[in-house]
Design goal:
It is a single chain. This protein is α/β, with parallel strands linked by helices and 127 residues long. It has a single domain, classed as 3-Layer(aba) Sandwich (Rossmann fold). 49% of the residues lie in helices and 24% in strands. It is globular, with a radius of gyration of 13 Å.
């Protein structure tokens, strides 16, 4: 059974790209906003990673990241996609439990390597 990743992305093209690149290795659950993301986390406890694009609905996305990183129930590792590094992103990464920020444009192979590294680390801590 494939391990599950929740992808939250308001850009349809990017969402399609992520599904195309990652679906060979992982089951991708794609939603367009944090409200759909929260619903998926409530319904599916097997989700192991959240991949979120903070370029859309920025404040809502950071609020969501803060909520799941501080929640005992929904705590999941987070990889952030962002178009440009800025002080807000750096500060929020330091405040929250963000595993990594992937800057756009990105190499799909580098993204896969980052996700594989994290998923392996998560699996090792569970076993």
């Amino acid at each position: 059974m494939k391990r599950k990743i929740l992808s939250i992305n308001g850009n349809r093209s990017m969402s399609f790209l992520l599904q195309t690149v990652l679906s060979a290795r992982y089951e991708i659950i794609a939603v367009s906003d944090v409200f759909g993301g929260m619903e998926q986390l409530r319904k599916d406890s097997d989700i192991e990673l959240v991949l979120i694009d903070v370029d859309y609905s920025t404040q809502e996305n950071w609020d969501f990241i803060q909520h799941i990183s501080s929640s005992v129930i929904y705590q999941k590792p987070v990889i952030v996609l962002a178009s440009e590094r800025n002080m807000r992103t750096d500060k929020n990464m330091a405040d929250e439990k963000v595993y990594e920020t992937v800057m756009k444009p990105f190499s799909p192979l580098d993204l896969i390597r980052s996700i594989d590294k994290l998923m392996y680390a998560v699996k090792a801590t569970i076993n």
